[in-house]
Design goal:
alpha+beta, two-stranded antiparallel sheet, single chain
Length: 119
């Protein structure tokens, strides 16, 4: 159980349900799970063809050359980083059976802990 303030601070990665007089945190959603919803309806991803193309090219190069690569996506909050990742991962999972996807999220409060994302 969480209060309304905590529920408001959690982003779309977390499944929060409003129940009788309280909010319940049910866990973290998988990054590429299902379609993104707006007012309960699935929304298309628009205006990201260039970025998706760059990610496709990096992935193809990595597969063809047999080398690992990392991609860092940086932008202000609300620009669509999570949506871009979701669209790309859905596309990869649809076309590739044997792909391993590793995701790391940083925490600004743990800046002095260089191996913190490996926990």
């Amino acid at each position: 159980m969480i209060d309304d303030v905590a529920a408001g601070l959690l982003d779309a990665r977390f499944e929060v349900r409003e129940e009788e007089g309280f909010f319940a945190l049910h866990g973290e959603r998988a990054l590429a799970e299902g379609a993104r919803l707006l007012l309960g309806k699935a929304t298309p991803c628009v205006g990201r063809d260039r970025e998706l193309g760059m990610l496709r090219a990096l992935f193809t190069e990595s597969v063809e050359e047999g080398t690992a690569q990392a991609t860092l996506v940086v932008a202000p909050p609300g620009v669509g980083k999570s949506r871009l990742a979701q669209e790309f991962l859905q596309e990869l999972r649809a076309r590739c059976e044997a792909v391993s996807i590793w995701i790391a999220r940083a925490d600004g409060l743990r800046a002095g802990s260089p191996l913190g994302m490996l926990e």
